[in-house]
Amino acid sequence: MCMEYTSLKKDVSLVLGTSGINPKKGGPVMRRKVFLLALLVLCIVTMALVGPMPGPSTATAARPIVIGVPTSLYTPFGREGLKAVKLAVEEINAKGGVKVGSENRPLKVAVADTRGGEPGTPVHDALMAIEKLITEKRPDAIVIGPFRSEVLMASMDLVAKYRVPQLGTIAQTPKFQFKIKKDPEKYKYLFRVTTDALVDATYLNNTFDILKNGYGLKNVYFLYQDTLWAKAFSGLMAKHCKKTGWNQVGFEGYAAGATDFSPALTTAKEKKADVIGMVWDVPLGAGMFAKQYEAMRVPSLLVGFVPPMASPAAVETVGPGVEYHIAIEFPIGASLPLKKWPKSGEFLSKFKKKYGALPEAAAVNSSAYDAVFILANAIEKAGSVDPDALVKALEQTDYTGASGRIRFNAQHIAIFGQENPNKTGMCVIFQWQKGKDGKLRRVPVYPSSLAEGKILLPPTMKK
Amino acid sequence: MSLLIYGLINSVILALYAVGFSLTYGISGLANFAHGALYILSGFAAWTFIHSLGLPFAIAAPLAILVTGVVGFLIYWVLLLRLRGIALAELIVTFAAGVAILELLTWKGFYGIRYSLPLFIRGGVEIGSVAIDYQRLFVLIAGIALVILLWLFVHHTRIGLAFRAMAQNERTALSVGIESDWIGSLSLAFGSALAAVAAMVVLPLGVMESTIGYEVLIYALAVAIVGGLESTMGMVVGSFLIGYGQIAAAKYIGAKWMVIVPLAAIVIVLAIRPSGIFGKYKELEERV
Amino acid sequence: MATSEQSLRRKRLDRGIKARADTIFAVASYREILYLMLPRLVPVGLLLVMPLLLQGYWNKVLVYACMYGLLALSWDFLASCGLFSLGQSLFFGIGAYLAGAMNYYLHLPPLVTLPLATITGGIVSALLLSPVMRLRGVYFAMVTLMLPLLLMKVIETTGVFGGTHGLSGLSPLPHDAFAAYLAVIAFLLCMFAFRRIINSDYGLVLMAIRDDDRAVMSGAINIYWRKSQALFISGAVGAFAGALMTHHYQFLGMSTFALDYSILPVAAVALGGQGSFAGAALGSMILVPLSEALRALGGLRIAIYCMVLIVSIIGLPEGIFHFLERKYHQFETVSEVK
After folding, report:
1. Does residue C276 belong to any structural domain of this protein?
2. What is the rounded distance in angstroms from the CA atom of residue B52 to the CA atom of residue B54?
3. A75, A213, A439, B148: which has the highest count of C-beta atoms within 10 A?
4. What does the alpha-carbon distance between residue A351 and residue A334 come to, in Å, rounded to a whole number?
5. Residue B237 counted as domain residue
6. Please, are residues A101 and A57 in contact by the beta-carbon 8 Å criterion?
7. CB distance B263–C267 less than 8 Å?
8. Contacts of A289 (CB under 8 A, 6+ apart)
9. Residue B101 resides in a domain
10. Which residues lie below 8 Å from residue C92, measured CB to CB, with a gap of 6+?
């Protein structure tokens, strides 16, 4: 009874205090020395890692134009986008830089990892990282921008306050342009060079039409990631499918951090879904889903946006089960060289030469590459890096690059269509198919101006 | 029918997560909140052995289990030794160690589709109308085997009994000749090794990333608390309750509610009956 | 028994000035007055002047530091009552959501939402934690660890108050310097108020509950009522921090319940020293600017907080503040044992 009481007392007593049952090993003096030594080591290691503080930029022959890249390097879109930006910057600098007025100035990239794509990061944190980049590195323009739509929306006010032109190339939420529409003068510094959910959904809707009309499929099961962009995307697809006579057997949203999709996959199987429409961008969930889909051998056609399954490396990382997966690549040139659009092949071969492999994700990389050239052209046109002049020049952009012909509409978003890359920006739908040599390749199947093959149905589904 | 089978597999996976945690926290009374971090660490260790040293999975896996056991041992000697008896400090320090490990792994770039362990055998089998892949069958077998082994170990071997003795009354155990430092570090080592075994079997089902570490810790905690800390039976019952609870929530309420089940279970059980279902009712220690 | 060889022992003696500045002799001369007042005046003076010196990004860091300081102070207050919570983010998030929701849906200005969110936040936190108030030690800590995660998942799942994408475009505080001064003054007021409370009779009862709650119960004092009062006070301070952050960043999201906001206060108190609130304040003033300076390291920052936490608990459990205090008041010599 006495012993119980003392052990109780210990629980309730000063928790961060002195030692427990064991006698102090080495005594308080020894411990303090160890503590101070550990602190010293921590300091030294930190200094070594952080490096010398960046001093004021040394005046070289020509002051570089700073391109700020605050994005989440945790996601493949951020990482590969950064690589694409660096590739473009190198190319432009090799040709002598950007002509601003009478002098040629090189481009310089200033990176900040906002960690916005990581699940545990508070949005405040990501905003602080962006603000730190803007106030310390003083970029003349921002490229790529945030990954998570939530961070993008929250950062719009920040960028507008500091008057830095921003060319976003990842986040796809349509709320971006709605906000710009509400106050065009305040948000005029914000542009988007890549697609948005509306464009992506239109492409997939047309694919659904082909599947229904050409192949007679009728049951569809929608699965999506419960975030702004993915929800909008899936909602648009579901609406279209309902209108065109598809039978919707499910419309499930999973939390962005979910890792177990077996309930959804079993339901899809039970309800005999012909097609599973899936939209997911968080790498962890997408990877888990890909593996579970393959392992559970669900006999449905997988259509949508699941980055690990659309990646060039999908066969090695996920497995041969990716065959017949139909994916959207937005915009063109992100990872699939198209025979009918040589500019995509040019960008990708340069990328592969410099970095050793094609970009990991089948999305948005070509936008990052094109954005740098668009920016350089606008600076040359404006003759200065003054934000307002730059914005005016950007509005008049007419540039044809790896992602098609990029022009901006009144809400500062790039115009995407479905006809021809010489007219507008484009996306492409492709399918993993086994070639005559038995190897799996990605074959573009829609739109017709870019297609190199037709959609094939898996043998289990042939009627 | 398929729901029953997948619920079973889900529950066994939860039991696998909880086995190691139960051994250290429930049976030996040592908080090891770095459990989730050790789980993921073993996965990345195995991956590194496979890809950087070129070892086959059959060798990399036991090696990773050994390495994790050693790390667990070290956690006791470096951290817990000096804090024995102060339950809250143990919790905080091991939790901080776990978070540090996980964040270090993320910082080093250990995330992405490249990081996954190979399946033991590809392919599957059909039971009724449900297709189950071989890996999930392995999970089932491994889970049941581990639980039975744990029960046997804790009730019938000298070391297992020593673990329980240390948790019940340390001074008496000392007077009988059970050296608490050595036994404590063994307990932590075994618990970490069990976490590694679970990792080797379950991780091939998906990709590896630090976020999973946090999840595993929460699941292990939920199972341990719901079932009751000291009993193996409680762990099994707890894992089934939560496993089927999740599947039921996914089917009847909505898939989004799956993640809430373990958290809500912890809060509710702690509020109503902190010892859990099968735990010994330690009223004096846990509530006023 | 001592051997015949010479042995040394370490002595700690009060400094001369401390002995001279005792009781009424504190006002004997300027030297004594300065000795006692300087450690109190200098930090306070610095903090009051900082908002004027810092601009833009570093101003935000100051607000961040004061906000974490408030969370650390509230943790310390709860710890002085025996309630060790690992979930300060619960209070933070509740205050943030209350202020943000009131501003977004009811269009109340920040000057109204801040006090309202503080009081309501305190009440809500006390109510939420009242079922688990009976728990002690580790069990209470585990519940507080899980509750913010649970709330975060519930918000994500049900989509209330903006769900995953949160609410943006909330009204800002009138001026950057205003926000900074509000944060600094609240922080200082809180620290001094808590010190006074703990040193009063009321605080004595709270500390008694920490030391031995059954003895207090047997003295016919209702410890649950006292505990809920402590939770209210602490929750109100945490809620104020959350509400301030929401208006300062003009954004509200479920990330206010993140683990970050629970771990850093504990690390700050562990570093600074538990018991005297000055330790909590010191710890947060060291850790937050450090973490901002290390922002380039990304995720490594959190690993560093955790390592600081571990090293502090094991190596210097009394905390930096107590260490410094002791050095300030005493000196050590080594003398022979004859």
Report:
1. no
2. 6
3. A75
4. 10
5. no
6. no
7. no
8. A261, A278, A280, A306
9. yes
10. C71, C238, C239, C241, C242, C245, C256, C257, C261
Q: Is C287 helix (H, G, I), strand (E, B) or coil?
A: helix
What would the pLDDT profile of A247-281 be if each residue is shown by its tens digit? 888 888 887 777 778 888 888 888 888 889 888 88
Q: How many residues does chain B have?
A: 288
Interface membership of A281 toward C (CB under 8 Å)? no
Put simply, the answer to whether C147 touches B267 (Cβ < 8 Å) is: yes
pLDDT digit string (tens) for A304-324? 888 888 888 888 777 777 888
Chain A neighbors (3+ CB pairs < 8 Å)? B, C
Instruction: Please tell me which of the candidates C132, C214, C307 has its beta carbon nearest to residue B271.
Output: C132
CB A430 within 8 A of CB A447: no
Answer left, alpha or beta for residue C65, where phi above 0 means left and psi between -120 and 50 means alpha: alpha
Asked if pLDDT for residue A60 goes beyond 70, the answer is: no
- Distance in angstroms (rounded) separating the CA atoms of residues A338 and A140: 34
Q: Which of A259, A267, A292 to mutate to test the interface with B (most CBs of B within 10 A)?
A: A259
A6, pLDDT greater than 50: no
Residues 6+ apart with CB under 8 A from A438: none
Distance (Å) from the C-alpha of residue B114 to the closest C-alpha of chain A? 6
CB-based burial of residue A61 (10 Å sphere; 0-12 exposed, 13-18 middle, 19+ buried)? exposed
Query: What is the third-level CATH fold of A198-329+427-461?
Result: Rossmann fold (3.40.50)
C271 interfaces chain B, CB cutoff of 8 Å: no
Tell whether B275 is covered by a domain: no
Q: Which residues from chain A sit within 8 angstroms of residue B215, using beta carbons?
A: 259
Within-domain flag for B235: no
3-state SS assignment for residue A463 = coil
How far lies A265's CA from each of A274, C45, C68, in Å? 12, 63, 44
In this complex, the residue of C150, C298, C314 whose CB is nearest that of residue B263 is C150
Per-residue b/e over B104-123, b at no fewer than 16 CB within 10 Å?
Answer: bbbbeebbbbbbbbebbeee
Find out whether A88 and A369 touch, Cβ atoms under 8 Å: yes
> Residue C298: pLDDT above 80?
no
Provide, as residue numbers in chain C, all residues whose Cβ is less than 8 Å from the Cβ of A125.
Answer: 255, 260
Residue C8 lies in a domain: no
Q: How many domains does chain B have?
A: 1
Q: Which two tokens stand for residue B211?
A: 């976020």
ipTM: 0.85
Q: Interior CA angle at A105 toward A103 and A106, to 5°? A: 160
Q: Do B106 and C156 touch (CB under 8 A)?
A: no
Give per-residue pLDDT as tens, C130-144.
888 888 778 888 899
Segment B37-63, tens digit of pLDDT: 999 999 999 999 988 888 888 888 999
Q: Chain B: residue nearest C149 by CA?
A: B263
| CATH no. for A65-195+344-406 | 3.40.50.2300
Q: Indicate if the alpha-carbon torsion angle A171, A177, A178, A180 is positive or negative.
A: positive
A128: chain C residues, CB-CB within 8 Å: 57, 60, 64, 292, 295
Structure tokens at B10: 């889900």
Token look-up 């003096």 returns A29
Q: What domain range is C134 assigned to?
A: 58-257
Does C271 fall in a domain? Answer: no
Query: Predicted confidence band at B192 (pLDDT cuts at 50, 70, 90)?
Result: very high
Residues 161-180 of B with CB under 8 A from A: 169-171, 180
